[in-house]
Amino acid sequence: MNEAVNRKDGKIALSHIAVAFVALFLGAIAGLLQTFVRSGEIELPAGIGYYQLLTAHGVLLGLVFTTFFIIGFLYSAISRTTGTLTNFSNKSGWLGFWLKTIGTSITTVMILLNKATVLYTFYAPLQASPWFYIGLTLVVVGSWVSGIGMFHQYATWKKANKGKASPLMSFMAVATMVLWLIATIGVAVTVLFQFIPWSFGWVDKINILLSRTLFWYFGHPLVYFWLLPAYMCWYVVIPKIIGGKVFSDALARLAFVLFVLFSIPVGFHHQILESGIDPVWKFIQIVLTFMVIIPSLMTAFALFATFELAGREKGAKGLFGWFKKLPWGDVRFFAPFMGMLIFIPAGAGGIINASNQLNQVVHNTLFVTGHFHLTVATSVALTFFGISYWLIPHLTGRTLTSKINKLGIIQTVLWCFGMFFMSGAMHTVGLLGAPRRTAFTTYGDHSVALSWMPYQTAMAVGGAILFVAILLMIYIVIYLAFWAPKGYEEYPIGEVNEQAEATPLFLENWKLWIGISAILIILAYTVPVIDMIQNAPPGSPGFKLW
Ligand code: HAS
User: Fold this and answer.
1) Which among 329, 376, 406, 422 is placed 20 to 30 Å from 388, CA to CA?
2) pLDDT tens-digit map of 203-261
């Protein structure tokens, strides 16, 4: 195994990470302004709309920051663990990068021109400029090209190492991209066959229910596309940083396989309150949703085991003695750890959302917004920051200094504080009935709406703290990329515990897993989708309400 990522391959990863952090910065400005507008502190100048900002925030952070960071990180992981990329994989890496970057630029310009104020979920019948959808298509096609490059590298390694299990990190990267490719079929179909013809005016009407269903076929696995790279860090990188071992290679692979199987046929849990879908099919998909919780519970188990075994190796005694042996002063550990810790309430919120009856209380309220600010914007984002502290200097031939390590710890603490205020207030006020996706309003000074105001102010306070944390992070990223002392920063990859069971090779039988995944998708979606087409509602013209 290479100890360092090849320089040429590293440039692909770095370019992706650079775009990711530019998107993070722009998206954060939108986020800060939103919290101030929503709490009634400011009004936006120059005709900028609240929903325009909200669209920019969701697209730049939810779609661009994540996708670019993930693909950059996965390329680095594959190159680090399977060796220098083949010519084909390297070229695919660059082609994918440019397609995604051109697509992102088109989409962002459309949002800034106020021609695509449709939020990141672009629900019909809100209708954007066709160029918004074309930009998104390029991002998706670019990500496919990147994925094919990774598959090629993995297949080349497998051919040269017949009968051996692939390196764990590469396996995880491939599983993440398999999930992504299957998931994006849904969004590709709705954008190509519904949104683009409708927004160009080639057809007058759109089947809203079908478009939302195809969106959520993609939208739920999307959240695991965000989560799995964080899990790669938790399973493989963290053991090395804490001086321990990967608890079980087989368990980690099985968890990733379960995500490929169960993360897709569950989109209806975002549509529990959507009329026109038979409750039986909603019920089936909710049962499958509870199945997709299992690999996260397995992950929690494996992490506790990793921490405990590492602690006992270092002489920890008692039930919780290992806790003190963790490297609290090392930001490469501390930031992802805070992500894990916060994933416990974040995941509990997900289970609340997924429960049919409780969903009636929280759907379309700020509770859901609170949920995803803990999951993606804290557990995942803090882990991505944790990766950046060593990955960026590793790729630029520099080192993480103790000053930046300290700043990173301050950044993490600020992030957790900011999120405590913002997401805590969102969860609470959501339970009091405050809707999501709304600008400032007192609903004619209604007493219930007025009771939400203190929470919205708390959201703005949290948002301001988070903005300071983002500025700090951007400074750290620039420092690590350009100013940190030259040197060598380790790319940490944990070894597997000698006492773990051997990894069964069937875990890499992709034909089997993709086959089962296809069967589950067909089972969960065929009948309801046929129903939506055969008994289609009249369809809707486009609306531009901004
Ligand atoms: Fe979710 C809505 C259900 C996980 C993101 N979710 C959303 C939306 C987003 C999102 C963005 O069923 C909004 C979409 C929109 O715009 O409308 N979600 C779930 C469930 C899970 C879940 C069941 N969500 C995530 C993750 C996300 C994410 C992960 C991003 C990364 N979600 C829903 C539902 C809705 C929803 C409904 C729709 C609501 C509605 O009505 O609109 C599960 O996967 C969660 C399982 C997680 C766990 C936690 C395991 C804990 C671990 C940490 C261990 C910690 C350690 C450290 C070891 C069971 C692994 C501790 C150390 C110590 C010392 C203590």
Assistant:
1) 422
2) 999 999 999 999 999 999 999 999 999 999 999 999 999 999 999 999 999 999 999 99
**Percent residues over pLDDT 70 in the chain:** 100
The minimum-distance atom of ligand 1 relative to the CA of 120 is 16
DSSP 163-226: TSPPPHHHHHHHHHHHHHHHHHHHHHHHIIIIIHHHHTTSSS-B-HHHHHHHHHHHHHHHHHHH
Determine the pLDDT at residue 66. Answer: 97
Let me know if 220 is a catalytic residue: yes
- Give the whole-angstrom CA distance, residue 366 versus residue 409: 29
Catalytic site includes residue 394? no
DSSP 8-state secondary structure symbol assigned to residue 118: S
Beta-carbon contacts of residue 252 (< 8 Å; ≥ 6 apart): 168, 172, 235, 236, 246, 302
Rounded alpha-carbon distances, angstroms, from residue 280 to 188, 400, 524:
27, 54, 10
- CA-nearest of 58, 145, 150, 151 to 98 is 145
For 100, what's the count of Cα atoms within 13 Å in the CB-facing half-sphere? 31
The one catalytic residue in 65, 154, 224, 259 is 224
Q: Is the CB of 363 under 6 A from ligand 1?
A: yes
Amino acid at 225: F
372 carries an active-site annotation: yes
pLDDT at residue 1, rounded to an integer? 56
